[in-house]
Amino acid sequence: MLLLPLHRPLTRATFPVVTALLVLVNVFVFLGLQAGDNARMQEALALYASSRLADLEAPAYERWLVERGGRGEELQEFRALDGELPRHAFVGQNTLVDREFVPAMQTGRFFDDTAAFDEWRRLRAPYDTRLQSITTLRYLLRSSEFDPVRLVASAFLHADLGHLFGNMVFLMIIGLLVEGALGPWRFLGVHLLGAVGANLASLAFHWGDAAGGLGASGAIAALMGCFCLVWGTQPVRFFYWIGVWFDYVRAPALWLFPAWLGWELFNLLVRDDSNVAFEAHAGGLVCGALMGAVLAKTGQVRVGFIRDAAPDAAVQDDRWERAQRHIGRMQLPEADRLLDELAKESPSRTDVQLARYRVARNAGRTEQADARALHVLDVEAGNAPDVRAQGELLAELAGRTVAIPVETRLAFARRAIVHGALDEVERVLQSLEADVPDETQSQLWFDLALRHRDAGAQAAHVRCLRHLAQRHPQQPQAAKARFLLENA
Q1: Which of 157, 284, 144, 294 minimizes the C-alpha distance to 223?
Q2: How does it sit in the membrane (predicted)?
Q3: How far apart are CA 7 and CA 257, in angstroms?
Q4: CB within 8 A of 409, min separation 6: which ones?
Q5: Strand locations in 84-131, DSSP E?
Q6: Tens digits of per-residue pLDDT, 186-199?
Q7: What is the pTM of this model?
Q8: C-beta contacts of 44-51 below 8 A and 24+ residues apart
Q9: What angle do CA 205, 210, 216 make, to 5 degrees?
Q10: What is the DSSP string of 444-468?
Q11: pLDDT tens profile 209-266
Q12: Are strands 141-142 and 2-5 parallel, antiparallel or unpaired?
C-alpha cells in the first residue's frame, strides 16, 4: 500500500531549503563516510569466520546464550547450523550489533581455561579496531543500548543505494509540505526529535535482542505524522496505490494518520521476518503526530501556506455556485447539503459558513442559525473583507440580543485591528468594558488608535486616545495616549 500526499508543486517560492540540506547530508554520509563499508564489513566477517578468534568465540557464544535464557530462538538457530564455518559466520554476524557480547566475554567465565581467555583477548583487540574503522558499525542503532549519539546518527545511515533513494524521495515530498507549514527551524526540530522518538520505539521493541537499525525512515515517518496534525482537516490531494488500484483523491490530511499507522502496525504483526523497522515507523508516526498537535495548538503553524497550498475543492467544482442558485430559489435543503460538504472540506471558509447561517435563518431554524452564526465568528478570517463580513454579522446578532461569548468578541476585535477592518471595533470594545480586565482593554484601544493613525483617520485616532486616557487613566497605555495627544 502506498499513500503519498502530492499536494504542492516544487517551485522557487516553495523550495524547502532545510529538506534539501538534509537530503544532501544523507547523500554525503552514504557516498562519503559510508563508502566501502559493506565491502570492509564482508571482508572482516570472512576473515573472522576462518580465524582462530571464531574457534574460540563460537563455543563461548553458545554457553553465553544458554546462560542468557531469553535468547532461546537464537540458541536453537545456532545449534541447527551444520558445520563450523556456518556457526562461525553466524556468531560473527550477530555480534556485530550485540553490545553485550564483548563485555560478557571479558569476564573470562565462558572460556575453557585462562590460556584460551588470554588468547581471545589478544586476537579480539585488532578485530575490534578493524570494526571501529567501519562508519556504519560505529553509528548504527544497537538494541539494548541507549546511546544519544546513535539515536540521532543512525537516522543518517543507509544500507544501500536503493534504501537511500527511497527515503530521500519521501523526505523531499513530505518535507515540502511540512517545512512550508512550520518554517525551517521547527521543521528541523521535528525531524531530529522524530528520529529520536522512532529509534526509542525500536529500542523498546527489540530490547534484549541482537539487532541493529539504520535509516531515515523513522524520522520521515515522524514528519508524516506531524503533517497529518498540522494540516488537520485541510483537504489535500494524494496518490494511493493498493494492489492493482491506484488514483489521485482528495481528503482531509488528518485522515491519512490512521491509514499510515494502521498499515505499519499490520506489517509489524504479520511481517516479523522482514528487515524493515515497522516499529520505528509506527513510533515515528505517533511522535510526529504529538509534536504536530502541540505546534498546531500553540499557533506555530504558517496557516497561509496551508490555505494557499492549492485551490479549494469548492473552486474546482460547481458546488458553491449550485448552492447559491438553490438559495436564490429558496431550495434550502439542497443548498444546505452542498454547503455542509464544502464546510467539512474547507472549515476556514468564511463565505461558506456565513451561507450556512443564512440558510438556517431563512428556514426559520433560529437555534441552529444562532449556533452557526457563532461558528462564523469563530473562524480565523485571514483578510479584511471576511473580517468585515464577520463584523456585520456581529452587529446583526447584537441587534437581536443574541448572547455572544466574551472570547468571541475579543478575538474578533483583535482580528479586525490586525486586518484594518476598523468600522465595528469601537462598538465591540465598548461592549467588552464590563467583562474584560482594564489592561486588556487599554491595549486594544491603543492598538486601535495606532491603526486609525496609520490609515490616515486622524479624528478617529484622537478619539480613541482620549477614550483610553479618560476610561483607563492608570494603565501604561494611557500615559502613552496622553503623550501622543500632547504632541499631536
Answers
A1: 284
A2: Multi-pass membrane protein
A3: 16
A4: 394, 428, 431, 432
A5: none
A6: 999 999 999 999 99
A7: 0.62
A8: 44/127, 44/130, 44/131, 44/134, 45/89, 45/92, 45/93, 45/96, 48/88, 48/92, 48/127, 49/85, 49/88, 49/89, 49/92, 50/85, 50/88, 51/123, 51/127
A9: 60
A10: HHHHHHHHHHHTT-HHHHHHHHHHH
A11: 777 889 999 999 999 999 999 999 888 888 877 776 777 778 888 999 999 999 999 9
A12: unpaired
> CB–CB of 373/393 below 8 Å?
yes
Question: How far apart, in whole angstroms, are the C-alpha atoms of residue 184 and residue 19?
Answer: 8
Beta-carbon-side half-sphere exposure of residue 441 (alpha carbons within 13 Å): 24
Q: Where are the domains of the chain?
A: 2-33+157-307, 37-137, 311-379
CB atoms < 10 A from the CB of 237, how many? 16
User: What would the DSSP string read from start to end of 270-297?
Assistant: H-TTSSS-HHHHHHHHHHHHHHHHHHHH
SS3 212: strand
Within 13 Å of residue 146, how many CA atoms lie on the same side as its CB?
Answer: 4
